[in-house]
Amino acid sequence: MRIAVVALGKIGLPLAVQFADRGHDVVGVDVNPEVVAAVNAAREPFPGEAHLGEKLSEVVPSGRLRATTDYAEAIPGADAVVVVVPLFVDEETALPDFTWMDAATRSLAAHLTPGTLVSYETTLPVGVTRGRWKPLLEEVSGLVEGEGFDLVFSPERVLTGRVFADLRRYPKLIGALSEQGARRATSFYQAVLTFDDRPDLARPNGVWDLGSAEAAELAKLAETTYRDVNIGLANQFALFAEKQGIDVYAVIEACNSQPYSHIHRPGIAVGGHCIPVYPRLYLSVDPAATIVRDARSVNAAMPEKVVARAADLVGSLDGLRVAVLGAAYRGGVKEAAFSGVFATVEALTKQGASVQVHDPLFSDEELLRLGLTPYHYGEETDLAIVQADHAEYRTVAPEELPGVRLLVDGRRVTDPALWVGVPRTVVGQGVTS
Fold this sequence. Notes:
Elements: E1 2-6, H1 12-21, E2 25-29, H2 33-40, H3 52-59, E3 65-68, H4 71-74, E4 80-83, E5 88-89, E6 96-97, H5 99-109, E7 116-120, H6 128-141, E8 149-153, H7 163-169, E9 172-176, H8 179-192, E10 207-209, H9 213-244, H10 248-255, H11 278-285, H12 290-314, E11 321-325, H13 340-350, E12 354-358, H14 364-369, E13 383-386, E14 406-409, E15 424-426, E16 431-432
Parallel strand pairs: 1-2, 1-4, 2-3, 4-7, 7-8, 9-10, 11-12, 11-13, 13-14, 14-15
Antiparallel strand pairs: 5-6, 8-9, 15-16
Helix pairs in contact: 1-3, 5-6, 9-11, 9-12, 12-13
């Protein structure tokens, strides 16, 4: 097949590589010429995705994958177009901002040729595939959905850093606007993906047709919103446990020993492109979902609550030097999208602290571009707060943070044995020293 992938980001590029690796002719479109140049040179434009570099070095020289900034070069004649353009949420209104997706849809529609399957993989509010993309594609292309082209929603369900493994492990969900579209989407994804054997599933792993675009849209929102709500509940348990002198992790471990309990881990923040964002997309179509709204509020407030806890333990933060460990939104991933580092720094600064940030994955220049002041081991500090669960922080010790009077571990990643003699507190646990 000839396949076009629109947007070569941390999901789109691995998808394009996967399709090419399965023997198909793939053209990736991206508005960033630096990304396009990197792909055409078989270079990773971003670090941290397992096996991406080695696969690029195979599919690009073979001619199965190339990149361009020109839709006219990629879309005409494609058997399938897969769209993975980011959808943002407006910070003030908490409503989806379709600016980028609208522009990409218009550009691909302007070059759409008859017989193409168009699949949106970007997470969407329920109803957008049918109510927004169908009429926009028809208006610009002059083609009719179901006759000139077929439209399907098939949400990406992968985690950055392990995209190729997740593509094999999880069923590929699809929801089309017609039976013909569903058949074509099923055949397409069967041809570009392979699936692990999953005896734990109720039906064989593979392409699962949910019957409508709306059902597939809701499935992606539901599975991610569930995580946010679950973490919000875990955080409420953690805050209560701290006040009662209870180790919430022991409680959670005990609860989860029973098969009907699946309590997630509490922590200082919920970050990344997905979990903080998709509940807002859900709320944009179901504003009466008070459970979802409350959980989002709980999780958004955690950085400020952790900072307040530090102030309770160490006294006024005014004038103190604070090292925040971790700019990334989660351990092992060089990505700061919606990271808790920003709210943590803001809460500390409001209390008069002088804040610096350490992250083994980011250079000083990169931290500065994020608006953060770099911290280096060996520099004096009064307080340290672990914000990201990088593996490196499992062995961080007071010797690397001279002068530290308190460690606040927001991720339960540090080793208590290394902190004997220095007060250490973990979200959901008491103080040890």
